[in-house]
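TL;DR need structure tokens for one chain.
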Amino acid sequence: MARLIKTLFVLVIGSWLSLATFKQTFAQQPIAVPGEAIRIADIGLENQVPSAIDLIGPERGAAGRNRSALVHRLQCWIDGIESCSVADLNDLRIREIRRFLGTGPSDRDGLLSILFPDQSRIDVRLERVRDLAPDDWDRRVYEPVVLPDTVRAPGLPTVPSRPGELETLAQQSSPAIRAALERLRQRLQGGLEGTQAGSAADADPGLVPFAQGSTSPGQ
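>> reply
TL;DR here they are.
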């Protein structure tokens, strides 16, 4: 009898730990908001950043500027700032994003999928700011974070970060993807830094810093 009770106790404890682990893992998973991808053309960056591959590379350089430009335009769209966003501020997708930021689960972030003209994609995580003070009115309740490791492109099993691995992959891709891989190779080798489509911030003089007092609809 004692052995049976001990066995049941071990099973109950094991089940409880498994359930706790599952809940923690589920809570860490971001929610896709909205389910439909956002085209880079929706936020007016298709000419400066024609491929998700143009977002891969060091922070100091063209790729870093591209990521900053994408974050800036997404914030403009989400926050409803007309002066720096070409997107429809009443788009159903943006209303869904704002609704999520205002009322969604506080223990989960949002995840956006951005689609480019060459059919490549990248994910952007809307990270909630969880350490806001009650009197901190100037900070947003979220921060877009571009995730270079999530880049997907037609015909590519993965997008490597070493120049020597790019040439073989380029032979299996469309002309647009091959061109994007060549720009990536040049960035990784330090060539033509800040030129062509890899320099979104330089090519778009309309990108201006946010005013410090701007307010997110989710705040």
